[in-house]
Design goal:
The structure is a single chain. The protein is an all-alpha fold. Helices cover 80% and strands 0% of the residues. The protein has helices at residues 3-19, 30-53, 55-70, 75-87. The longest helix is centred in the middle third of the chain and has 24 residues, at 30-53. The radius of gyration is 33 Å and the shape is elongated. The termini are far apart.
Amino acid sequence: MHFSQLTILAGILAAITIVMPSAPNLYIDPNTGGMLFQMLAVILALFSGIIFFFSRQIRSFFARVRRKIRGEGPPEEIKEEQTESHEE
C-alpha cells in the first residue's frame, strides 16, 4: 500500500469509529434478576394451576371440536345409537 492509500484507509476507519455509536453497557443487577425470576415463577405457577384446575373443561372442549371436525354428533347421540342397535 502506498502512503496515500494508508492515510485514506485510516481516515475512513476513524470516521466509522466516530460515527458508529458504541454498544451500550448492559448490566442486570443480581437483585433485579432474582426479582424477575420470582415474577416469572409466579406467572408460570398461576398458568399451570389454571390449566390443572380447568383440565376437564379444556379436554371436553377439544373433544367437542374434534367431533365437530369429524362430523360426529355429541356423545349422547352416539350412545343412544349404540344402545338402540344392541336392543335389536
